[in-house]
Amino acid sequence: MLTIKDLEVAYGDAVILRDIELEVNQGEIVALVGSNGAGKTTLLRTASGLHRAQSGSIHFEGKAIARWHPHRIVDAGLIQVAEGRKLFPHMTVLENLEMGSYIKRARAHRAESLERVFGLFPLLAERTGQDAGTLSGGEQQMLAIGRALMTQPSLLMLDEPSLGLAPLIVKDIFRVVEEISRDGTTVLIVEQNAMQALRLADRGYVLENGRVLMSGPSEEFFADELIRTAYLGL
Q1: For labelling alongside 199, which of 87, 178, 223, 230 has CA 20 to 30 A away?
Q2: Dihedrals φ, ψ of 124, to 5°?
Q3: Euclidean distance between CA atoms 191 and 213, whole angstroms
């Protein structure tokens, strides 16, 4: 579904990503892990059209999207849940969810999308009239994922969904990601909790200093001594 080749991205004179090669196939969960500052968020923002690449190509479902505007990429079904959630804090839970279905193809399925989101996150159904800014961190993350699902994504990109959350909430978020995948949505997840992300994923990539250090099936990461020590704490 998503193919990135020879990608180079810079902020001014500082090159953040070099020679990036990455693929996400339909139905997969793919984990992107690495240390802080490795370029993981930059990669997602570039795929989303929020940052322009200096060179290389990005194809989504066979279409070259590297020069597309973000709204067109959203229309195509490639959706990102940003780090920090980026909710509308003074709008209610329901209003935030409805904003996720503003595009024409999603608007027609708003009722069934709401039913799906409330099935995944029953707590949100109890908070529909509550302002998003008054929710707990875990509830806000549920809402951010729910809003993204309202767009009916083909590929959902999650940027650090467990950041700052209590262990029990993290477990619930990962359970939901697995359920989203079983329902047919392809997932690319950037995650600080490398071990949990790789256990969830079919395949993984390690990003280090703006380059892909390793890629392959998830089980290979647990067998690699360098990865086990540097990223998995084993």
Answers
A1: 87
A2: -65, -30
A3: 16
Burial of 71 per CB tally in 10 Å (0-12, 13-18, 19+) = exposed
77-102 pLDDT, tens digit each: 999 999 888 999 999 999 999 999 99
Please name the residues in contact with 98: beta carbons below 8 A apart, sequence gap of 6 or more: 110, 150
Contacts (Cβ under 8 Å, ≥6 apart) of 134: none
pTM to 2 decimals? 0.94
SS3 215: strand
Helix axes 137-149, 110-120, angle to 10 degrees: 150
Q: Which helix (H) or strand (E) holds 138?
A: helix 137-149
Name the residue among 53, 45, 107, 96 with its Cα closest to residue 73. Answer: 45
**Strands, E assignment, 12-74:** 14-24, 29-33, 55-60, 63-64
Query: What are the tokens at 33?
Result: 């892990």
